[in-house]
Write a structure and sequence with these properties.
By secondary structure, the chain is an alpha+beta fold. It contains five helices and seven strands. The structure holds the ligand Nc1ccn([C@@H]2O[C@H](COP(=O)(O)O)[C@@H](O)[C@H]2O)c(=O)n1 and 2C-methyl-D-erythritol 2,4-cyclodiphosphate.
């Protein structure tokens, strides 16, 4: 049995916030705004995992009205989502993802993101996790550096 899921998330860029993407704190003049640490990539991957199993989305599991998730570490939330996947008897096939950002440059940080995500999802090998990045050629809200978006697709396989 295999299950497929997709996730998409957006967070606004704001001054005075950390820029944490894929579990990596990236030096940048602005950071991502959210109830949690606003890790847009981990949110997209969490949503893809939940979607694959018909379990809704992270807002349903970790509401932004709940003070317990104020400044939450999204890696902890991803690991909680992964526990739900494991409980249902699935393991990771693969995850592919894209960060949509004009700046900062993601490429130097992608290997570390892959390691972190592969660890959280208990991947057998790093090639099961792919992280890409693209600008939008200065077009739209990402191009104007007002926000960063991420999307993810996952394949889960019955263990
Ligand atoms: N924030 C970003 C955006 C892109 N990259 C890398 O640059 C390459 C070229 O991006 P284009 O949008 O001009 O096609 C792309 O392949 C990414 O690897 C990046 O590191 N950070
Ligand atoms: C992650 C949560 C946690 O409260 O808050 P935000 O950081 O605002 O992120 P969002 O992508 O809007 O998802 C909803 C919430 O579950």
């Amino acid at each position: 049995m295999i299950r497929v899921g997709q996730g998409f998330d957006v967070h606004q860029l704001a001054e005075g916030r950390k820029c944490i993407i894929g579990g990596v704190e990236i030096p940048f003049e602005k950071g991502l705004l959210g109830h949690s640490d606003a890790d847009v990539l981990l949110h997209a991957i969490s949503d893809a995992l939940l979607g694959a199993l018909g379990l809704g989305d992270i807002g349903k599991h970790f509401p932004d009205t709940d003070a317990a998730y104020k400044d939450a570490d999204s890696l902890v939330l991803l690991k909680r989502v992964w526990a739900l996947v494991k409980e249902r008897g699935y393991k990771l096939g693969n995850v592919d993802s894209t960060i949509i950002a004009q700046r900062p440059k993601m490429a130097p940080y992608i290997p570390q993101m892959v390691e972190i995500i592969a660890g959280a999802l208990e991947a057998d090998e790093l090639s099961q996790v792919n992280v890409k990045a693209t600008t939008t050629e200065k077009l739209g809200f990402t191009g104007r550096e007002e926000g960063i978006a991420a999307q993810a697709a996952v394949l889960l396989v019955k263990a």
